Known about the structure:
By secondary structure, the chain is α+β, with helices and mostly antiparallel strands. The protein has helices spanning about 15-30, 30-50, and strands at about 10, 55-60, 70-75, 75-85, 85-95. It has a single domain (about 10-95), classed as YaeB-like fold (2-Layer Sandwich). The chain is built from two helices and five strands, in the order βααββββ. The termini are far apart.
Amino acid sequence: MGKKIRNRQIKWDISALSSFIDLLDRIREDSPTNAKRVKTRITNLIKAIPSNPEMFREDELKLDNDGTFRVFNKDRIRVSYKIEPDSIIIARVRHSSQEPIVF
């Protein structure tokens, strides 16, 4: 028998979604085209997570991380997510120039 693949739903923490929108708005001020490209690249990576939740490294800034918090960086944007049994929660989105917040 093959391994059963879970169909996890992507959910956004409201603060993470707000941060992502703010970052895109700032990019859009200089270049609407670049903002669209960044949004597409990041959202495509996020959409790929449910099929392989552990595809990215463990989030080293998460205190007492049991391995369920993962992170990736793309276009100087750091996206941290949590693997839940039935969902992927996008927990934090920050620009790499921002001071890290250990959570």
